[in-house]
Amino acid sequence: MSAPVNVVGGGAWGTALANAAAAAGHPVTLWLRDAEAAARIEAQRENPRYLPGVPLHAAVRATAAADALAGARASLLVVPAQTLRGVLGQLAGPLATAGPAILCAKGIERGSDSFMSAVAAEVLPVGSPVAVLSGPSFAADVARGLPTAVTLACADPGLAAALSALLSGPSFRLYHTDDVRGVEIGGAGKNVLAIACGIVAGRGLGESARAALIARAFAELMRFARAFGGRPETLMGLSGLGDLVLTAGSPQSRNFAFGSRLGAGASPEAAAGGKLAEGAFTAAALTGLARARGIEMPVAEAVAALVAGETGVDAVVAKLLARPLRGEND
Q1: Distance between CA 310 and CA 306 in Å, rounded?
Q2: CB–CB of 4/29 below 8 Å?
Q3: Among 106, 190, 275, 319, which one carries the catalytic annotation?
Q4: Gap between the Cα atoms of 275 and 132, Å rounded
Q5: How much is the pLDDT for 249?
Q6: Helix, strand or coil for residue 86?
Q7: Are 75 and 102 in contact (CB under 8 A)?
Q8: Of 306, 322, 295, which Cα lies nearest the Cα of 228?
Q9: pLDDT-based confidence at residue 327 (cuts at 50, 70, 90)
């Protein structure tokens, strides 16, 4: 039997990627921090908490044993952005022999304002190969084997192509690029902008307003990407525009759903409802980085202020509508 592919993280997205990697023909080690949760998934052959009713592929083995990760072909890190540093540190030993690390969180670390690849570079041994996976994908679709296409980025183009071929299966297709920063910015930024689209829906501002917001928000994201070394064509692809289109109008998106509840009048705490919305953590870091470079991001700034409880929805809408008129491409 060939060496397995690791998936670190047993949430909905981790379970979905485990199924996808297994469907691509690999044995998969699905690692969870919680031993009881791992045993339950292994016994029931599904993830009852995050993906109830979706069968776990026969080639997936769920475990909480860290040493089971050693010797893999590749390791997908599917944990929240704010916990990635800690998980990498905890699993540093077995991951040292577990192939390239493929980072699947879409966010920016609070406090350090670091992108995920920078976090990994600080924690992993010098020279460890790192890739980033992002794109328009709902976990339930991927887990059920519905057609999905995403982007994998690695600074080494040859490794990016090899990893994409490794993980691509009958219905899960990976395109590859060497623009790591562009893919990271698309994934992290679209979460913040999806919250804004949810706010528009929750406030009942109409489809015309949502369409305008998507266009203006995407222009912000493009400005940010150019300033931080991302390529425009990357942002126009799956990991930027594609992902924003998916999450800008669907309640399946945790970020959109969080924004919708904000728009309907819920407090940030109530809107979260105990569920993770990466964009809520990323908003302050994204706008902080933008301000440091003198990049205008009024939509992202509005989201950050709302998430922080500094203002209300009506005040934000009034402020955005009162902005000076300007050329569309300025």
Answers
A1: 6
A2: yes
A3: 190
A4: 23
A5: 85
A6: helix
A7: yes
A8: 295
A9: low
Say yes or no: do domains 5-178 and 181-321 share a fold. no
Strand ranges, E, within the chain: 5-8, 28-31, 46-47, 51-55, 60-63, 74-77, 101-103, 108-109, 114-115, 130-134, 148-154, 172-177
Q: Please say if the pLDDT value at position 329 is more than 90.
A: no
**Residue 325 pLDDT:** 57
Residue ranges per domain, the chain?
5-178, 181-321
Q: Write out the two tokens for 60.
A: 């997936």
Q: Which residues pair with 196 in a beta bridge?
A: none
pLDDT interval class at 278 (50, 70, 90): confident
CATH classification (class only), 5-178: alpha beta
| Residues ≥6 apart with Cβ < 8 Å to 32 | 9, 10, 38, 41, 62, 63, 64
User: What is the residue type of 283?
Assistant: A
Task: Please give the share of the chain, as a percent, with pLDDT higher than 70.
Answer: 97
What CATH code is assigned to 181-321? 1.10.1040.10
For residues 194 and 256, the answer to whether their CB atoms sit within 8 Å is yes
Report how far residue 30's alpha carbon sits from residue 14's, in angstroms, rounded to the nearest whole number: 8
Read off the amino acid at residue 226: R
Q: Where are the alpha helices (DSSP H) in 91-242?
A: 92-95, 116-123, 139-143, 157-167, 180-202, 207-227, 232-235
What distance in Å separates the CA atoms of residue 101 and residue 163, rounded to the nearest whole number?
10
Whether 319 sits among the annotated catalytic residues: the reply is no
